[in-house]
Amino acid sequence: MAESHDHLSCQEVVELATGYLDGALPADDASLFEQHLNFCEGCVWYVEQIKTTVETLGKVREEDIPSEAKDRLMSAFRDWRGS
Amino acid sequence: MAPAQAHPQSALTAADEADLVARLRAGDERAFEALVDRHYAMMLAVARGYVRTRAIAEEVVQEAWLGVLNGIDRFEGRSSLKTWIMRIVVNIAISRGEREARSIPFSSFASEGDEPAVDPDRFREEGEGFPGHWRAYPGNWASLPDDALLGRETLEVIKTAIEDLPPAQRVVITMRDVAGCSPEEVCGALDVSDGNQRVLLHRARSHVRGALERHLDG
Description:
Order of helices and strands of chain B: HHHHHHHHH
Structural class of chain A: mainly alpha
Order of helices and strands of chain A: HHHH
Largest sheet of chain A: none
Number of domains of chain A: 1
Helix content of chain A: 55-70%
CATH class of the largest domain in chain B: Mainly Alpha
Oligomer: heterodimer
CATH topology of the largest domain in chain B: Arc Repressor Mutant, subunit A
CATH topology of chain A: Arc Repressor Mutant, subunit A
Shape of chain A: elongated
CATH architecture of the largest domain in chain B: Orthogonal Bundle
Largest sheet of chain B: none
Number of helices of chain A: 4
Distance between the termini of chain B: 28 Å
Helix content of chain B: 55-70%
Largest interface: A-B, 46 and 60 residues
CATH architecture of chain A: Orthogonal Bundle
CATH superfamily of the largest domain in chain B: Winged helix-like DNA-binding domain superfamily/Winged helix DNA-binding domain
Number of domains of chain B: 2
Strand content of chain B: under 5%
Radius of gyration of chain A: 23 Å
């Protein structure tokens, strides 16, 4: 992605954000990414937005199992155990 | 950053897991119930990535639990129990989808939507000076009041944004960010490469961030 650049544009930074946060960027790209954040407040805020998005996604409560579905499963379990 | 640590339901140690498997094999109903409570929502979300309706996805999950019970004696712990369970869901969902000719081609995975993370109009163009740099910076969300992000409305915006995603992106972001799975767990469950799951996660997160931005800054 960074090709032969010695710096990244903001437009490149936003495309590398997920790889950076996963620790999955090649070392050269990761260091260009960090250098960019050192001087670009806009990209610092962008990356913070992505982190906030991830944190907020973690607060989405997964739906509970419907009680009929659970009853059916528990009864399947008893059949299985009895077999 | 370690998002997985924010999700207590994903924090089963190997010893906990071995204990759970032993209790299941011994027919411990409480162990089964705990496992169902823990994984049902994610199983449903994964199944929904492969079949067209929620009703079919629910049937897939029911069938998958029977597969778990019938296969638990053969579970060898080479992957985590969670990954093994999700593989069963995926295999059943795929065969179910094929049988009804209603499967969603997960093989076309990476080609799903190819839009950039951020609208290109928000960056300066060639010839303008500083091409590729922001025209106007994104908002500083740290300056928002706490309840702006945690309010019910914001969570609804996020849920709707997830629902709007193409299926493969929806499955991956649900596993990674809602349920707190590791990249390895996603790869193992969905049989995709690490790079592929990250591309899907990237597009999905970018979409959800955009929806949040319109809601918060709009």
